[in-house]
Every structure is written in structure tokens, then in C-alpha cells.
Fold this sequence. Notes:
Elements (H helix, E strand, L loop, with lengths): L2 H17 L6 H18 L6 H21 L9
Helix pairs in contact: 1-2, 2-3
Amino acid sequence: MGALPLGIVAAAYREAFRSVGEAVPDDVEAALGDAVACTAEEFDGRSARVGEELLPAFYGHFVGFHAAYHGASQPVVVS
């Protein structure tokens, strides 16, 4: 699985912040980058269903990294 779909997903997260006039917090940016890398490695060399496999895996990695970087009790919130 190429990194392109994952890059598009990460860009959508960034755009969600920008669309409300917010800068992407450092912990979110770090979690996005690490989630893209981890998910790309997980699916490297094999096909995957985007909605059933790729997106849930990406989101799971993102949530885990964000919890590690920001704290499990702090959700990612865009006002």
C-alpha cells in the first residue's frame, strides 16, 4: 500500500484545524506523521481495503500516538 492515501488522510486532519483558523498542534502533527509511517509499514507490499482495513489501522495508530504524546484523557478537538 502506497503512502499516498495515508498522506491524503493526514492532510485532511491538518486541513480540519486550518479550516477553523487553528494551527495544527505539535502533538497532533507528530502523531499524524508517526501514524502515517507505522500504517505504511504495516501495509507495505500488500493490498488493503481502504475503508475496512487502512483507515481503521491509521486511526488506531493516530489515537495511540496522540495519547502517548498528549495524554490519554485529552481528545483531539477542532473547535
